[in-house]
Amino acid sequence: GEDVEQSLFLSVREGDSSVINCTYTDSSSTYLYWYKQEPGAGLQLLTYIFSNMDMKQDQRLTVLLNKKDKHLSLRIADTQTGDSAIYFCAERNRDDKIIFGKGTRLHILP
Amino acid sequence: DAGVIQSPRHEVTEMGQEVTLRCKPISGHDYLFWYRQTMMRGLELLIYFNNNVPIDDSGMPEDRFSAKMPNASFSTLKIQPSEPRDSAVYFCASAPGARNEQFFGPGTRLTVL
């Protein structure tokens, strides 16, 4: 069945770049998403990429998509304490259903 | 707009009791989703509605769970009887269309003792 996998934890020093990785199984995914969940809150869409793109940049965020390997990454440049959150990778499949990964908890070290 | 509103924010109940979670979607959004989040299973889609009609309830765990959407501005998720393994954070989300961004509510943290 469809699956979205991502590592559960990542620790990064403040000021460094964070790279959160994700793999998915459905080759017919149309859109891929990154959502951010701050403590005690719901998920918020951070950015997305259409499946025919391989890169998208938005200020400190860079999304890279390797469709051949079904690999998606989110790079956060100059990581700040406010970036501490859980980041969810998600894909929109051929049935227009969004499948979420389990989330990567990003911890910022001083 | 206030965003998606969920109530209560926290619920603690005893095993066997009925639990009702409530959601008010963003006005004008035709799609409403119920998710459950646990450490073990991550975020799971339970059911979603389009124009108040349930479209896909394949994620509903078992008959103890039921969801309704009597009108465009209100939905409930009911668990009867509740069990300790139902303890989780339940999110409601709404979207203007099937392919649009989903906007999530703050969630209801349910603890079943």
Describe the structure.
The complex is a heterodimer of chains A (110) and B (113). Chain A is mainly beta and 110 residues long. Chain A is built from no helices and eleven strands. Chain A is globular, with a radius of gyration of 13 Å. Chain A starts with a strand and ends with a strand. With 113 residues, chain B is mainly beta. Chain B has no helices and eleven strands. Chain B has strands at 5-7, 10-13, 19-24, 31-38, 42-50, 53-56, 65-71, 74-79, 88-95, 103-104, 108-112. In chain B, the strands form two sheets. In chain B, strands 2, 4, 5, 6, 9, 10 and 11 form a seven-stranded mixed β-sheet that branches. The chains are: A mainly beta (110), B mainly beta (113). At the A-B interface, strand 5 of A face strand 5 of B.
Pick out the low-confidence regions of chain B: none
Give the mean pLDDT of chain A.
Answer: 92
Structural class, from secondary structure content of chain B? mainly beta
Query: What oligomeric state do these chains adopt?
Result: heterodimer
How would a crystallographer describe the biggest sheet of chain B?
A: 7 strands, mixed
Distance between the termini of chain A: 40 Å
Shape of chain B: globular
Largest interface: A-B, 17 and 16 residues
- The radius of gyration computed from the alpha-carbon positions of chain A, rounded to a whole number of angstroms, is 13 Å
* Secondary-structure element series of chain B: EEEEEEEEEEE
As residue ranges, the low-confidence spans of chain A are none
Q: Helices and strands in order, then pairings?
A:
The complex is a heterodimer of chains A (110) and B (113).
Chain A: E1 4-6, E2 9-13, E3 18-24, E4 31-37, E5 43-50, E6 55-58, E7 61-66, E8 71-76, E9 85-92, E10 98-100, E11 104-109
Parallel strand pairs in A: 2-11
Antiparallel strand pairs in A: 1-3, 3-8, 4-5, 4-9, 6-7, 7-8, 9-10, 9-11
Chain B: E1 5-7, E2 10-13, E3 19-24, E4 31-38, E5 42-50, E6 53-56, E7 65-71, E8 74-79, E9 88-95, E10 103-104, E11 108-112
Parallel strand pairs in B: 2-11
Antiparallel strand pairs in B: 1-3, 3-8, 4-5, 4-9, 5-6, 7-8, 9-10, 9-11
